[in-house]
Write a structure and sequence with these properties.
Layout (H helix, E strand, L loop, with lengths): L8 H13 L4 H8 L3 H10 L4 H4 L4 H18 L7 H8 L3 H7 L3 H23 L8 H18 L4 H4 L12 H20 L9 H20 L5 H12 L6 H5 L1
Helix pairs in contact: 1-2, 1-3, 2-3, 3-5, 3-8, 5-6, 5-8, 6-7, 8-9, 9-11, 9-12, 9-13, 11-12, 12-13
Length: 251
């Protein structure tokens, strides 16, 4: 059974109103709710009937459209080839309006990456079974399979997994991937404590390798080299690396 979001429609609407109508600002509201500012912008774009959506030139709506434009353009172009004019054109707004929301194109792409990552994480939180297996290696498999399904369901996920030329010094996607490495490492450390991994196995190195493999699978699916069903099967195989005998896992 999927886990319900801790933010129902009423709470999202209240957050959007506080951020934009009351002038508190999306960054402050995001801090108060312990979410990323990109989440506040996305809620503003999703909530029908809100003041944010009713204003065709509203701050929230234009920002979310620019984010979607950035994600779409990275399907067809590398980062270096995209200009603020192209971003504005894809969003259906003027360049002036774009610069009123974001100072640079780097800021737009940063928001595009953060928005995709935030949506993936929220989907994982909602779709992870409420009652997970007590076995850490089984939890690992469940987590990575659910995460794969969520990644493939998010329209802008390719900005996190495909090579679209985003300079690391401009947009750091690595910090999002590190979140998954940390979770996988914790599960592997627990598996080692229970004797399910060999004493010489390094859970941290295994975690990096598993997540790197999963990232490669996601890149292949999102890049069109394989389909989502095959991708989920491959992810399950990678997740099961930790469930083999300690001698095999340790190499």
């Amino acid at each position: 059974m999927s886990r319900p979001s801790r933010f129902d429609v009423a709470r999202r609407r209240a957050a959007v109103a506080r951020a934009f109508d009351e002038g508190v600002g999306p960054e402050q509201v995001a801090t108060e709710l312990d979410v990323h500012p990109a989440t506040i912008y996305r809620w503003a774009g999703e909530l029908t009937g809100s003041r944010a959506e009713q204003r065709s030139d509203g701050h929230e709506d234009v920002s979310s459209r620019l984010v979607r434009s950035a994600q779409q353009l990275l399907r067809e172009h590398e980062y270096a080839a995209v200009t603020m004019k192209m971003l504005a054109g894809g969003a259906g707004v003027s360049v002036r309006s774009a610069y009123q929301r974001f100072d640079t194109k780097q800021d737009v792409f940063g928001a595009a990456v953060d928005a995709a990552a935030t949506e993936i994480i929220e989907r994982i939180a909602q779709e992870t079974p409420r009652h997970l297996s007590p076995e850490p290696l089984e939890q690992l498999e469940e987590l990575l399979v659910v995460a794969a399904r969520c990644v493939y369901a998010v329209q802008g996920a390719h900005v996190l997994f495909c090579d679209v030329g985003l300079p690391r010094e401009v947009v750091d996607t690595g910090r999002w991937h590190q979140l998954f490495v940390d979770v996988v490492a914790r599960l592997l450390h627990e598996a080692q404590r229970l004797g399910q991994l060999g004493p010489d196995d390094d859970p941290d190195h295994l975690a990096v390798g598993i997540v790197a493999g999963v990232r490669g699978v996601h890149a292949a699916v999102l890049g069109g080299s394989t389909d989502a069903t095959t991708g989920q099967r491959l992810v399950r195989v990678l997740a099961q690396v930790g469930s083999t005998s300690p001698r095999v896992v340790g190499g």
